[in-house]
Design brief:
homodimer; alpha/beta; Rossmann fold; Arc Repressor Mutant, subunit A; 2 domains; disordered N terminus; DNA-binding
DNA sequence: AAGGAAATCGCATGTTCGTGGTATTTTTCA
DNA sequence: TGAAAAATACCACGAACATGCGATTTCCTT
């Protein structure tokens, strides 16, 4: 169940980690003037914020600048989360760099906002996060979806036969030719022949390349 | 480059695929009363819509119900997209079923909206899609991020050294030991030793297993 | 200054792989 | 029913791999 602070008597506790002091201060004042929200701590670096995690009560939400000097915001995400998985982290960034977006979201950020968002929009996003949502800038949301689709797109059909697909499975899972032969009750030679044909169809020459290609292009369906 | 129809003289062409006729009609009237938008065709099944793709001009956006009788909306996504990759598909659904969400987004849906969204919200979403965004219901966005984080969580740290990570990269990309040695200006023996150590740390005994493990557990960062 | 971890290089041996062949028996489908 | 495709099986040889050992150098930390 998602925990919301709506009904608590305590206000939502928000930390800011942002090196630009004027932006930090203006954000803090906006938050502190919002009913039900308190910006109890603000920091200019991740290191200081992490230190405060040892002594201060945990925040509900951290607004985290990604482009910080010292420890990058991305590395910090895991560390904040290691204190409590319930801490929501919303990334603030100037530009929507693909890699940063991807990495931050992989590390468990709850949202991703561009800094040119209005302050109202940022406050709204905090509320959205607390309600179990994920505030995403429009274009970033699309990039996320594109990555999503790319991860699962089957581009090419190499016209493998059923038997070949089956053997590819075992190959990818790390079995040797002999082990595959044993598992499928075939002779080593038969497996060898099939693998030769697979190599031709996939245009590779080594086992390593087959496995790599199979993963990259989603040539098999994971069973778990 | 993202194509927008904003500056065209032609209105945005929107198809509806939805089996509830009253909902379909009310949606159509809202769209047709919106300046710059036309709902030229509406359908009660995917099959009929796909048939129309053969004869009618392609739509810019399709609002697609997922829970349709006959062909599921999810299967239809690929088919619509196969006509033109530029057709944006926005999913309409009553409930935010995890699997449906995941599958639809994997197939290339541009957005995902719950049917209890206001009609204004839906019109706004169409505009957002055309502007290169991805309208996502708040809770769905969070689920997407959760899946994202789960897919890329690095569970175990095998304590590989920098050099070992580097060699693992090349190993995974399909190079032989000798090729790695050449690329890093090392002797074959050095690479061999590193690989031995990698095997120990990852607890594997074959190249195939290393590659498999590396992909499964995201032991390396993709560079693109 | 000392200790340890990491990186480097070397050798030897048995195993597995990659690839060139050829050939027989199903299975499939027009 | 008859040809094509797929699956099965075999051999041989050089290349690449896995793994046992030992050794020196470089760099970091205390």
């Amino acid at each position: 169940m998602i925990k919301t602070n709506d009904k608590d008597n305590f206000p939502v506790n928000i930390w800011l980690v942002e090196d630009n002091s004027s932006y930090r201060k203006s954000l803090a004042s906006v938050i502190n003037s919002t009913p039900g929200m308190i910006s109890s701590n603000t920091f200019s670096t991740c290191e200081r914020a992490l230190k405060a995690m040892e002594t201060e009560p945990f925040p509900d939400v951290i607004l985290l600048d990604i482009g910080l000097p010292g420890m990058s915001g991305i590395k910090a995400i895991q560390k904040f989360k290691s204190y409590s998985y319930d801490i929501h982290i919303v990334i603030l960034t100037i530009y929507d760099d693909n890699d940063s977006v991807f990495n931050a979201l992989c590390e468990g950020a709850s949202g991703y906002l561009l800094k040119d968002s209005t302050q109202d929009k940022i406050v709204d996003s905090i509320k959205e996060v607390l309600a179990g949502g994920a505030p995403l800038n429009m274009h970033i949301a699309q990039k996320v979806l594109q990555l999503f689709a790319k991860l699962n797109s089957k581009k090419v059909d190499y016209e493998l036969t059923e038997r070949e697909k089956e053997i590819l499975q075992h190959l990818v899972s790390g079995l040797t030719k002999q082990q595959i032969a044993d598992k499928l009750f075939l002779s080593f030679h038969t497996v060898n022949t099939h693998i030769k044909n697979i190599y031709k169809k996939l245009q590779v020459t080594t086992k390593a390349a087959v496995i790599s290609k199979a993963y990259k292009e989603n040539l098999f369906r994971p069973k778990e």
